[in-house]
Amino acid sequence: MKKNLAVVGYGGMGGWHAEHARHSDVVNLVGVYDIKPERNELARSRGIHAYNTFEELLADPNVEIITIATPNDSHCPIAVAALEAGKHVICEKPVTVSSALLEKMIDAAKRNNRIFTVHQNRRWDHEILAVKELKEKNDLGYIFNVESRVHGSRGIPGDWRGKKEHGGGMLLDWGVHLIDQAIFAFPDDPIVSIYARLDHITNQEVDDGCRVIMKFESGLQYYVEVGTSNFISLPRFYVQGVNGTAVIQDWGRPIKIVTCNQWFEENVTPIKAAQGITKTMAPRDDKTITTYERPLPQADVHDFYRNVCKAIDGIEPQLVTHDQIRRVMKVMEAAFESDRTGEAVRTYI
Ligand SMILES: NC(=O)c1ccc[n+]([C@@H]2O[C@H](COP(=O)([O-])OP(=O)(O)OC[C@H]3O[C@@H](n4cnc5c(N)ncnc54)[C@H](O)[C@@H]3O)[C@@H](O)[C@H]2O)c1
User: What is the pLDDT of residues 73-127, one digit of tens each?
Assistant: First the structure.
């Protein structure tokens, strides 16, 4: 039996959740609520029931799950009220704007024995699944460096995303996805230091881009970069292992893997490089490497809601766990601190 879902916040992402529910095999959209009457009117014009108030939605015994898709600063009070009303809660990312508020949300979930999780939909991105597969198949041997970048050229989108009071800025917006992906792909490796620089190219109030270096206990360095002033984009992923290198040039592109099958090369011929010559940077003899491409793994983002429903029924543990949600929040807090102090922050996250 499908579970009844209501969506709070019928903007860009709330619209996505509502549309997604129409094609879902596990949830059924019973209605939406937005603080702006015109958004409720829009929902009604699309044949979707819209509640007049949040209280009316909470009081509807039909509603089992509430998905929160409002600006980041409002997630905590909405989630706590929904959990206290006995609803299960899916919160959009970033879960909230501080660890202190996150603990209030987790407490409310535990007190009311409800499922509380975060829509980390980008764990189903084909590109991060390809990086995870690379690690699991051991194509490159020990992976010592991952670079994960997303680049745009239009600054910060929307209105509230440019405001600190609403939890704006790109670290909380896109950084959260890339950090969650790092923890998803390398789950058992504690993060022992974080160094971050935030950009303020088009906005002084909040960051319009970020660069975060996470050092894992194993020695892995995982670099996350979000840019919104990039008129030329760098590859989505660049991964180095001791036996090779892999690259994913762009969304949806296959992963290209080059592995080394013979470390030593006889008679490397120097190449001319700019105003000098170099052997060190000369391309390898093709005989010493193997080059191949692999299609990206397939995934179905509906699996997120399928998992939430199974977790509600006690059949499966929830995939996006409280522990992971806490870790991501702590990494973002350490990144803000590192940017403020200009120093790396020692952590054990
Ligand atoms: N997971 C993803 O891929 C993804 C993508 C985009 C946005 N998001 C997240 O979704 C959330 C919403 O982002 P968006 O792009 O849809 O923003 P948006 O501005 O398009 O929509 C937000 C909506 O919430 C409404 N709202 C504001 N306060 C409210 C309240 N107290 N109660 C009810 N409605 C309220 C606004 O009127 C607006 O219609 C953010 O947390 C954002 O980070 C996630």
Answer: 999 999 999 999 999 999 999 999 999 999 999 999 999 999 999 999 999 999 9
36 lines ligand 1 (CB under 6 A): yes
Residue ranges of domains in the chain, CATH in brackets: 3-119 (3.40.50.720), 123-300+330-346 (3.30.360.10)
Give the span between the Cα atoms of 323 and 325, in whole angstroms. Answer: 5
Q: How many residues does the chain have?
A: 349
Contacts of 156 (CB under 8 A, 6+ apart): 162, 168, 169, 170, 173, 202, 203, 206, 208, 228
Q: Which ligand 1 atom sits closest to the C-alpha of 172?
A: 43
Cα separation, 297 vs 320, in Å, equals 20
Q: Which of 17, 19, 32, 34 to mutate to test the pocket of ligand 1 (most atoms within 8 A of CB)?
A: 34
Contact 167 CB / ligand 1 (< 6 Å): no
